[in-house]
Model the fold of this input.
Amino acid sequence: MNRFFKPLRRGIVLAALATLALPVCSWAAADAKGPIRIIVGYSPGNSGDMIARILAEKMSTELGTSVYVENRVGAGSRIAVDALKRAEPDGKTLMVGTFSVMGIFPMIFTKTTYHLSDFEPVAHIANSNVCITAPIDAPYKTVAEYAAWLKQNPSRAQFGNEAAGSPAHLLGLEFGRVIDVNNTLIPYKSTTQMISDLIGNQIPAATLALPSVYKLHQAGQVRILAVASEQRTPSAPDLPTLKESGYDLSANSMYGAWMPAGTPRPVVDRISKAIVDAVAQADVQDKFRQLGLEPTGKDRAEFVRISDQSEKDWARIVKDTGFRIDE
Done:
């Protein structure tokens, strides 16, 4: 009997010690010190780059370690995402970018080498609203009038956009599908040129980020027909939404933070809390609003819920529009 129980007791003790060791490893990872890198796919001075730098300063103070921004520019931020995918899941690397780059691009660009599941959602940072804008002299002043004009002039059904595969681009295609008109993209290389053509009445409309044109709308140089947010935006409460105009459509550029899949959960939660706490600070919110952003600061759990729903919504839109890019 004793010969049987001695090895059994040894096995129980070893199993118990192994179980106790697991959380120790997680705690060690969560408390690991050292510089933290924030990858961004934007040039210095771009809104996305500025978001990351604002957060890096605050996170450095809260986490008690250096947090720096690394710019990996090119291929519409896909180079930056590939760098994040290759990074070790040790809690030392995260990326700040838009959901369109992380979640929509893999649906559209046929040669994309990553998928949303390759990353761990960390925090929802901010929203940048999208709008449909028309020349001030256009014969339509509301979304309903614009839709009627498109139906009456199908050969002129075109819209400008400078970011293929972005929520603003897909919004233009989806709006055309909803009203049963083939709304064709006029591709631009820069927002500046597109806005210039809007002001000059060279294109029927454009879909773009609200901050790019709101001041021009207020100055009477262009007319924003509607924003694509779920509710009226606090930064432009005078503008109707597409939904209240009778079109069940919404789209925005959602800024968030991601880490490589496999990063220990305590580490993710720690970084998530640092970001949420940073976004909650008044000076950070003021800086975000100056960039035309709506600060959100939602934690990992809420960001996972939003990401899952967004992925489903955009998958349907991409399928409905049939839009693909062979690169």
